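Please fill in the sequence for the structure shown.

STRUCTURE ENCODING:
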């Protein structure tokens, strides 16, 4: 969870940051006195939750919130102020929450427990999957998963690309081998590759990421921590990590996102 906060008064910022750290000690928290620095950080590194003082010199909190929503429409905005007359304007932004000063740990905890866009940690994932740039797969500790065959890895990549949809072996063959005939020789080769993929996943303790049914395969998306899937959910870090490169090594890999 990445949290940014801003207040142009140093003492108020220190109190805000302290309350956030007390409420969420395991979060990645960054404090700013200047609105422009917070906005630039959000663009570069992403942000899940932003605590914004409303009454600031220059760009006020509401104006900053509008700019942040352009970075990520699902960013949780929580306004902080000592002036109740700003409440109507702030809530018109469809913010996640609104805190009156003085800020306390308890007020922060209450807002974090009722976010407009809840942040659900993926604690049960078996693999980390990177689709942006070259396709790669890692164990939870960051160790690369080694596939016995490059084509076996490509099959897994295609299943990840399909986001949990069932894929027949014929469909997989068409993606990997294009116009080659789907004859007995190709079917046998494909089964060999699928077996190699399953063997590599089992060796890594991740065989459950594959759902198997008659003549079709799919991935269990709930067991994967995947940048592509996070992007589709408008996760701040994933959105900002995407640089128009997706599974570069595979010709069939078209980046698909209906939100654009």
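FILLED IN BY: designer on duty
SEQUENCE:
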């Amino acid at each position: 969870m990445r949290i940014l906060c801003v207040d142009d008064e140093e003492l108020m910022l220190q109190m805000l940051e302290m309350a956030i750290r007390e409420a969420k000690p395991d979060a990645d928290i960054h404090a700013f006195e200047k609105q422009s620095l917070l906005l630039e950080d959000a663009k570069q590194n992403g942000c899940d939750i932003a605590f914004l003082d409303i009454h600031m010199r220059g760009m006020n909190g509401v104006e900053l919130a509008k700019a942040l929503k352009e970075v990520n429409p699902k960013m949780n905005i929580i306004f902080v102020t000592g002036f109740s007359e700003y409440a109507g304007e702030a809530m018109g932004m469809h913010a996640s929450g609104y805190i009156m000063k003085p800020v306390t740990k308890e007020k922060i905890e209450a807002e974090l427990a009722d976010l407009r866009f809840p942040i659900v940690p993926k604690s049960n994932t078996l693999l980390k999957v990177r689709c942006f740039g070259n396709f790669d797969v890692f164990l939870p500790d960051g160790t690369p998963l080694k596939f016995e065959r490059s084509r076996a890895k490509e099959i897994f990549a295609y299943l990840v690309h399909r986001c949990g949809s069932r894929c027949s072996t014929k469909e997989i063959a068409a993606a990997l081998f294009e116009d080659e005939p789907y004859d007995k020789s190709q079917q046998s080769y494909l089964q060999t590759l699928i077996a190699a993929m399953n063997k590599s996943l089992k060796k890594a303790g991740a065989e459950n990421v594959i759902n198997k049914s008659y003549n079709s395969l799919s991935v269990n998306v709930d067991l994967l921590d995947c940048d592509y899937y996070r992007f589709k959910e408008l996760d701040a870090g994933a959105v900002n990590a995407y640089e128009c490169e997706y599974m570069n090594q595979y010709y069939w890999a078209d980046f698909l996102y209906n939100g654009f």
